[in-house]
Design brief:
Blueprint: H1 6-14, H2 17-22, E1 25-30, E2 33-39, H3 53-72, E3 76-85, E4 93-103, E5 108-117, E6 123-135
């Protein structure tokens, strides 16, 4: 099992132009856990004023990969994931909380809870995702 510090995780996240665009932050990283958060702003909403499902899927994918990377190493890619939307996302912040369910040498299976946080701090579960992450060899 490999571990990398939160400073490295933040550097990796900052190297992703899309994550910078969304203002995503790494809040927890290590020991098979990762928590990413981003502010819910109007530009991330769909026509009914709810957080767009694509933003939820992005947050799930990225937090799943970060959690797996904390045990498999930094060179990983999501092989696939599924997401179940349970209720519309509203509030001030989206939190993607991922944890490794099982990790071997060749892959990790990770679960992610996607929660919205209201102005008063109340968390509401709005989606659940599960994914498989594989280590990859860096080119070169």
């Amino acid at each position: 099992m490999q571990e990398f510090d939160i400073a490295l995780a933040r550097k990796v996240l900052d190297s992703q132009p899309f994550s910078r665009l969304l203002g995503t932050r790494v809040m927890v990283f290590g020991d098979g856990e990762a928590e990413l958060e981003l502010d819910i702003v109007e530009d991330l909403q769909q026509q009914n004023g709810y957080l767009h499902g694509g933003v939820l899927a992005y947050a799930a994918d990225n937090s799943i990969t970060f959690a797996a990377g904390s045990v498999l190493g930094p060179a990983v890619l999501t092989a696939g994931f599924s997401i179940q939307y349970m209720r519309p996302g509203t509030g001030r912040t989206l939190v993607a909380r991922a944890s490794v369910v099982h990790a071997g040498r060749r892959q990790a299976t990770v679960r992610c809870d996607l929660l919205t946080v209201a102005e008063d701090g109340t968390e509401t579960l709005c989606a659940v995702a599960q994914g498989t992450v594989l280590p990859v060899k860096k080119p070169g």
